[in-house]
Design goal:
Helices cover about 30% and strands about 25% of the residues. The protein contains 21 helices and 25 strands.
């Protein structure tokens, strides 16, 4: 019998043969076939009597119905003192349901049918997206019409949406890259442009149900509504159905707010100081063009040469040859509605910040002054033309694109000549457009990083403006009077008695470590969960909490000396951001063994008498010397023990809340007394109950408990 050689061995032998023997040809000789013309299916356009414009495209491949409804009302329409109103209105339009079908009932109905209705906003528009089985189309369209014409806007869903938006504010400084994008947008658009109004706690505090009702009544209407539908339907039947469900939406006149012109960008050098980072996020840029600009196609190709991935000038020079960037690129920023912004984005280590900035600027200058080669132009054209087909990946992409073009005043077939226009661009065209467009000498520069670690200070590029990104505190739940000699004296008197009742200052002076084991009941996200926890406090500034809940182990650690910490959980380990470290500082300042011992440094201010569980208590305002947030404590007039604390905290979503902590079951631990039970309310609602099962103020805490852990 003839033996067969293993396939891999044969293949290896063939690969070792000279190319002449195999008759192989160089890859450059492979002929690339001509791109076949794309056949774009016809999108049917029709208007309803109320002014709503329809774009319909049949697609029977799957038994689905999909719709995108876009209205000309966006985030920029909100009053300046209520930034976020447009987003909250869109969110609660969906989550709150209608007068006839509440939000929770709507959730159940959609889940049972495998359907979805989603809302979102951007600067100029509000969008409703629908995805449903074709057999349920009529019912879902009836619901959409009901939401648009008769939204319920219930108070509980408004409160939930506002909490979620507060969480966004609280965490907005966690990611250096997001900080860079946000602050650079302000530089490019100008601080007073509605596209970059920054949402703050005070804006959200100004938003009420009446505001949502008024905003909806003023701007939600069909004349400026554009609807793209595609899926398994017959066109005429679908037009009739849309007319039945959305055609009843009454038409009305709307006065749209005026959106200011895009300002010219002035040269500036800006820095956001982020002490906790080891890398710099660099942004460079200036004003761009609208997509209908005559130079749109030459500039698209210019940007592809400059930044189109591997082989582009920025990638080859800044990242590959000089090794200065882990991320580098540029974006033309040619928008449909407005002249967007051209920007270069670069990420580098702190020690090469100035060098990387110069390298990016040099490539922009070279792009303006040095003609591209035939090879560069061909590569750029191939990239744009080869990606063009993905604009027609499905029927939804086709109908949505045409709808968006018409919405912004472009012809529906705006992109039909794209391949021909790209092919027609010459080196001379590209160079002329780049020469007129690129203004490296007039660009704004922003760096988010740690200036102490920069290779050179940013002043080598011009006068430096330091941008403050401190998040303003939310409006106070309670206002406090200015301290007087009398209220300060009374505050010291109350705190001296409270400290004496708990063991005295001398006893507290001997405490430097606290290890406490607790049983917890946590109410969060609509669930009640039992947990076990161990807290380690090492004075003056180390804190660690270990929690076992629902089969998962979580750890939180903060060290003041190291100016760092981490949160470790099911999703991995995350280093603390500055806002999170501030929360831990606040918590350390509220540790009873700290403020009882150092109460004089807290400048205790007597606020008056209040009741706690019906018993009279003295209210004291404490101002931590460490710069942590102020908090209020209440001292029982009979026992002289602290029975309650009130302070600003954050909930599980990172949203600021007013927290009330009730302390009870005081027991002797060594030479001091500590509470063994605590009950916590967040914004008046039960959040947590804690019972101490073991506590030590003598045992040393192992140093590794506070060791830094890399993310």
């Amino acid at each position: 019998m003839k033996t067969q050689r293993p396939f891999l061995a044969v293949l290896a032998a063939l690969l070792l043969l000279p190319s002449a023997v195999l008759g192989a040809k160089k890859w450059e000789k492979i002929k690339t076939p001509e791109l076949r013309p794309i056949q774009v299916p016809e999108v049917h356009r029709q208007s309803l009597a109320n002014g709503m414009q329809l774009f319909l495209l049949e697609d029977a491949e799957l038994p689905l119905f999909r719709m995108t409804l876009v209205m000309k009302v966006g985030d920029a329409y909100a009053p300046k003192d209520k930034v976020g109103l447009a987003g909250v209105t869109a969110e609660v339009l969906r989550s709150g349901g209608s007068v006839q079908l509440g939000g929770d009932e709507l959730d159940e109905l959609l889940e049972g049918r495998g359907a979805s209705i989603e809302t979102s906003t951007d600067n100029l528009t509000t969008t409703i997206r629908v995805n449903v089985l074709a057999e349920d189309t009529q019912r879902i369209l009836e619901i959409v019409g009901d939401l648009l014409m008769r939204p319920a806007f219930p108070e509980d869903k408004i409160e939930l949406a506002l909490k979620q938006y507060k969480s966004v504010v609280a965490r907005r400084n966690d990611d250096p890259s997001q900080i860079a994008d946000r602050e650079f947008n302000k530089l490019l658009w100008g601080a007073n442009h509605p596209f970059v109004y920054q949402m703050e706690y005070e804006h959200l505090a100004n938003i009420s149900r009446a505001d949502l009702v008024a905003f909806h009544g003023r701007y939600y209407q069909p004349t400026d509504a554009f609807v793209a539908v595609w899926g398994d339907f017959q066109r005429n039947e679908m037009v009739n159905l849309l007319n039945q469900t959305l055609g009843a939406w009454p038409q009305k006149a709307v006065q749209h707010p005026r959106i200011p012109e895009t300002p010219a960008v002035q040269k500036s050098v800006n820095v956001v100081v982020k002490e906790s980072v080891t890398q710099s996020n660099i942004r460079l840029g200036h004003r761009s063009i609208k997509r209908d600009d005559p130079d749109y196609y030459p500039l698209m190709l210019m940007n592809e040469v400059l930044s189109g991935g591997i082989g582009s000038r920025l990638f080859n020079e800044v990242r590959t040859r000089q090794g200065l960037a882990y991320r580098v690129g540029s974006g033309l920023g040619a928008d449909l509605a407005t002249a967007g912004m051209f920007r270069v984005v670069c990420g580098t280590k702190s020690e090469t910040t100035a060098q990387a900035t110069r390298a990016c600027l040099a490539e922009i200058v070279r792009m303006r002054d040095e003609p591209v080669t035939e090879e560069e132009l061909k590569r750029a054209k191939d990239a744009l033309l080869n990606s063009y087909v993905f604009r027609f990946a499905n029927k939804g992409a086709i109908v949505n694109r045409q709808m968006r073009y018409v919405l912004h005043g472009y012809p529906a077939n705006f992109m039909d000549n794209y391949p021909a226009m790209v092919e027609a661009v010459t080196i001379a065209d590209l160079q002329r457009a780049a020469g007129n467009f690129l203004k490296p000498e007039n660009m704004a520069l922003l760096v988010v990083g740690k200036p102490d670690d920069f290779d050179e200070q940013l002043s080598v590029f011009g006068e430096v403006n330091e941008i403050d990104i401190t998040i303003p505190e939310p409006p106070a739940m309670e206002s406090f009077p200015a301290p007087t000699a009398e209220t300060l004296a009374k505050g010291r008197e109350v705190m001296a008695a409270a400290t004496a009742a708990a063991g005295g200052i001398a006893a507290f002076d001997n405490v430097s470590n606290v290890t406490e084991s607790v049983s917890l009941t946590i109410n969060a996200m609509g669930m009640s969960m039992d947990a076990k926890g161990t807290k380690y406090v090492q004075l003056p500034g180390n804190y660690r909490m270990e929690i076992a809940v629902m089969g998962q182990e979580m750890v939180q650690m903060y060290s003041r000396d190291q100016k760092s910490g981490f949160i470790k959980g099911m999703g991995g380990t995350k280093e603390l951001g500055e806002a999170e470290m501030q929360e831990f500082e606040d918590g350390l300042a509220r540790e009873l063994v700290v403020f009882m011992r150092d109460f004089e440094d807290y400048r205790p201010q007597f606020l008056g008498e209040e009741k706690v569980d019906g018993a009279p208590a003295d209210a004291i305002l404490m101002t931590p010397p460490t710069g942590a947030r102020k908090f209020k404590i209440l001292v029982d007039q009979s026992s002289k023990l602290v029975v309650k604390m009130e302070y600003r905290a954050t909930d599980t979503q990172g949203s600021p809340v007013h927290q009330e902590e009730f302390l009870s079951s005081w027991k002797t631990v060594g030479a001091i007394k500590l509470p063994h039970k605590a009950s916590i309310l967040q914004d008046g609602k039960p959040f947590l109950k804690s019972e101490t099962t073991a506590v030590s103020v003598k045992d040393a805490i192992p140093a590794e408990k506070f060791a830094k852990v890399e993310s």
